[in-house]
Amino acid sequence: MLMEEDMEDKTCMFKESSAALQAAEKSFYEVIGERYPPSSKYEFKPYTDQNQESYDESHDQSCWRFSTASISSSYSNLVDTGCSHDLGEQRSLSFISQASSSHSSGNSMGSVIDSFVDSPVSMLMLPEIFSDSESVMQFRKGFEEASRFLPNGGSLSVDVESDGLFLKELKEEANDVVDKVVKNEFSQEGSRGKKNPHPQDVSLDSGRNNKQSLVHTESTVSAEMFDKVLLNCQSVTDLQKTLQTETSKNAQQNGQLKGSSGGKARGKKQGGKRNVVDLRTLLTLCAQAVVTDDRRSANELMKQIRQHSSPTGDGMQRMAHYFVDGLEARLAGSGTQIYTALITKPTSAADVLKAYHLFLAACPFRKLSNFFSNTTILNLAENATRLHIIDFGILYGFQWPCLIRRLSSRPGGPPKLRITGIDLPQPGFRPAERVEETGHRLAKYAETFKVPFEFHAIAQKWDTIQLEDLGIDSDEVLVINCMYRLRNLLDETVVVESPRNKVLNLIRKMNPDVFILGVVNGAYSAPFFITRFREALFHYSTLFDMLETNVPREIPERMLIEREIFGWEAMNVIACEGGERIERPETYKQWQVRNLRAGLRQLSLNKEIMKMAKERVDTCYHKDFVIDEDNGWLLQGWKGRIVYALSSWVPAS
To answer: What is the pLDDT at residue 519?
Structure first.
């Protein structure tokens, strides 16, 4: 009977003499705790809820409800059944109360209890066994008693292959962690008067909410604003003076002239004394508890860390806030989902531009990188008529307007400039949108400064790029530029044929006149979590301390840098593994060995560039910034710890 195709169109009538039906009735009443009543006439009707069609289109099951012939219409919606799942040779009927019938897309098992039913009917209805005056009361009483036999939380699922039931732990904890972390991100933005315009983008669900939104990330940014940040050095200088004045004033008020408290946060007063909390130690202990899956200790330590950390506190408190988010996500097994939700959250170009402006004024890292790269290119292309720059990781192309302006003033006129901008594809309908917008912006600068210009956008995985895709001509000066983005390529611990080596081999085949490389000097890419966590702790504590010393705490662009750059990177390092962990920096010495193996030869460091870099840092920036040289690398750091390194290379043959 179950296999008959037209059963849904039939009305099933059973007689009093049916022994099988009476046995089924008796077992049902034993479940609900009632005495088996005298026989009566039964009528089975399919109940079709018109509103059920809007329940969710991701469910391809036929849903039905219990109904009785005698229950009045005002009580007809007391009880919902679940969905009749097509399980091949078997059918299962799911029962769920209306109070718990709220649906979460992509998690159809979250609130449904599946059980096998041996009844020969495809549509199960309650018989009319009570009088009109008793029907509602008896029905509700029976349902409440029957519900006591069912497990809570919808944690039972059907094992179709073994025809049995097994307990399956649902990932409610992971969902809670994701919701909390993402909500934290949006609440921080909300403090600046912003709301999340795309709440569905951060859903973990695999149903309808997981669609890629058509988001245009470029806000309306005036050309004057770009010019002020990218071309006007005086604006950076003015911002530097403002930051120095404010930080000095705040340091004097707080009595902390040395910036961060070195990883120790003050607790509440107890008996007239203050408890000093060492956040760095607590974070390390929490990481060890997470590794051993000691959930009780990990949760207790997380609670302590959260009590003494804040995204608006000092440098160490801010770092601890983002690190504990990563630890909690790792413990819940939801790191990849959270990281994906964060990085797909749209950020406008205006916010990025403001944060970039602040970063230029607060520290010399990016400014010196641009100076090193542009000066190397200008020296090389002094007499060139055609210049081709291939930029791996071009992003917004903030580096190139200054170069275009300097090329325009070159004696003898500017060369014909061609830039090939390479970046990873963006999620959504237009993967190359951001790279193409960067090209349009640079074309306007080239038109303004009367520099012949051509732009070619490539948005794909770097290790899949072929030499033919780049359109290299033999009569042009070829420059390859990559600033701090090779760390995002997978290494040999994940893929035997490392994408890093593939890209370096491609660069050698291009035979460039110079390959300019900037690397993040970090050792937090180890496959062993505790080692990686400690190294990440050292690296990011340096960056957060640098911002704490040079930028006032209340500036919103500082929070944007910490949240959407350092915080997201830390989340990826701590909570993600395998191919999802894309933050994999190596030390500059490791990169030197890797480049030599790829057939590249390092060029000596230009002494004039080194001299000018030191002079600029000593004159304009905090005394704790480090500029040094080691084996052909220009090193940049803070308080003795090297953070970034720059070098230039050519093919060995």
So the answer is: 97
